[in-house]
Amino acid sequence: MRFVLLGPPGAGKGTQAQILAKDLGLPQIATGDILRAALKEQTPLGKKAESYMNAGQLVPNEVVVGIIAERLKGADCREGFILDGFPRSVPQAEALDEILTQLGIRLDAVLSMSIDEKAVVERLAGRRICRSCQASYHVVFYPAEQENVCDKCGGELYQRDDDREETILNRLKVYADSTAPLIDYYSRKGLLQEVDGQGEISDITKALKAALGVG
Ligand code: AP5
Ligand code: MG
């Protein structure tokens, strides 16, 4: 199964991709996670991406498209994958279409997760991320068992630099301008399914699985 999780910042793409990856045995491919790992290692890719990410702007297409083209060739993607945070503009979606055509495969679904702006700010302001494995938590809604320690790997939890209110508002604007047009793009291809991103995490997982026909 090959699908995309689409949605504004804080919609719960990473949270749900993490759960679905485990339940369905598929790799979670999150461009944001890949870029943050590169930034942490201060690789040339990380250095190039840093200023865009901290400003809440999209990293240039050639950078992210290159990452995805390489990643989808991985042996672990043969049975399927979950794209989390890619594509996020029409040119990226067109580039993905080309990559998939070259690989002789197609997307099965695009799941669009909706959430209102107030909830986004509340979610992102309380989010904590593991420095080692990138697992995502929330101080109130999804706390780690031990404060600031990752349940999964014992790594240290931290707050993302772009989870400050001013940057969050910019990311929402970028979503509205560049990413939301993908709702139409994938509707026209008959791939889009809308899922409410608000409610209990486990209920949203159920709704996503139902949309995928694996519930
Ligand atoms: P990226 O890392 O993809 O960030 P984003 O799209 O802004 O999305 P988030 O990760 O903030 O939200 P999410 O939907 O994953 O929510 P989460 O599950 O964590 O991208 C970061 C930056 O990298 C971009 O700004 C850009 O610069 C660059 N980039 C990445 N991809 C790119 C691309 N393709 N092209 C160009 N540039 C790119 O949940 C949020 C919080 O809410 C968590 O604390 C969670 O615990 C909590 N939560 C989740 N679900 C619920 C629920 N149901 N109820 C209550 N709380 C919940
Ligand atoms: Mg995410």
Question: Could you describe the 3D structure shown?
Answer:
The strands form 2 sheets. This protein has a 5-stranded parallel beta sheet, with helices on both faces. Strands 6-5-7 form a 3-stranded antiparallel beta sheet. Helix 2 packs across helix 3 and helix 4 packs parallel to helix 5. The model has no long low-confidence stretch (mean pLDDT 96). It starts with a strand and ends with a helix. It has 2 domains: 132 residues, P-loop containing nucleotide triphosphate hydrolases (Rossmann fold, 3-Layer(aba) Sandwich); 44 residues, no CATH class. It is of the alpha/beta class and 215 residues long. The relative contact order is 0.19. The chain is built from 9 helices and 8 strands. The site of magnesium ion has 5 residues, from helix 1.
Within the CATH hierarchy, at the fold level, what is the topology of the largest domain? Rossmann fold
Helix content: 40-55%
Shape: globular
The radius of gyration is 16 Å
Residue windows where pLDDT falls under 50 for at least 5 positions: none
Broad CATH class of the largest domain: Alpha Beta
Largest sheet strand order = 2-3-1-4-8
Instruction: State mean pLDDT (0 to 100 scale).
Output: 96
Major sheet: size, sense and barrel closure?
Answer: 5 strands, parallel
Our estimate of the beta-strand percent is 5-15%
Query: Structural class given helices, strands, pairing?
Result: alpha/beta
N-to-C SSE series?
A: EHEHHHEHEHEEEHHEH
How far is the N terminus from the C terminus?
13 Å
From the 3D coordinates, which CATH architecture of the largest domain would you assign? Answer: 3-Layer(aba) Sandwich
Number of domains: 2
CATH H-level name of the largest domain... which superfamily?
A: P-loop containing nucleotide triphosphate hydrolases
DSSP E strands, number: 8
Number of helical segments with 4 or more residues: 9
